[in-house]
Amino acid sequence: MRHPLLISLCIAGTTVLSACQKSSDADVKRAIESVNVIDETNLNDVMLTVADPNEAVAYFARTAEQHPDRIDIKRGLAKSLIRAKKPLEATKVWQMVVTSTEGTNEDRVSLADAYIRSNEWVKAEETLNMIPPTHETFDRYRLEAMVADANKKWQKADSFYDTAFGLTTRPSGVLNNWGYSKLTRGDYPGAEKLFGEALTYDSSNFTTKNNLVLARAAQRKYDMPIVPMTQQERAELLYTAALTAIKQGDVTIGKGLLEDAVETSPRHFEQAARALETLNRSVTNG
Fold this sequence. Notes:
This protein is mainly α. It is 77% helix and 0% strand. This is Beta-barrel assembly-enhancing protease.
């Protein structure tokens, strides 16, 4: 008489156990998926920062094939292509991102950046014009300034550079670009001031130091600026000043600067030595 009750209890127990097992399996699956998402996010970050650029391109390209609907992976691929110095390929990926339903104004800024790196200035300008003025970011105004420079719209360029300068805590790069803009216009004092200011934020940037020497030498200021520099850097900066002096007809000063460059370098500075030899030979033959 008790068997039906026992069987019912067993069936009920089995049902509860089965439900518990399913619930447990679902919880485990969700936990594993969460860990996988965290691991993937970390891996994506590594690929976008410290990984070899070409390895990052391969990783994101492979992942994009497996998950063609994931825009975040396409963004990673585009950014990796930029790091790998393949901007033309990056523009194609950014175009897909921008035209998707998940495309953002920041994606358009990145597309414009890729166009500039590909020397497609008209497309870059068209892309920037599609971004509403309410989207005010450092990268947007940095690119706007570069486009204005390319179009020789100096007043607009200055305005955009100034705005970009106010939107970043690391302004050395934009100040260097702004200074180079002034240099190309022939505003050498203005360029000198901007390069000098850029070096107060990043005194290790040799390109800015070289630009500063160019701006000073264009004003016939051939002495070295008071900025931190290694012996090798000093030799190369003296060489830059020497060539500028010679081009401006200050041959004697240029020769002296070349001699200083050869003596300053911790190892034989071949470029300066060859230039000095050529200069001496031309003077002798002349």
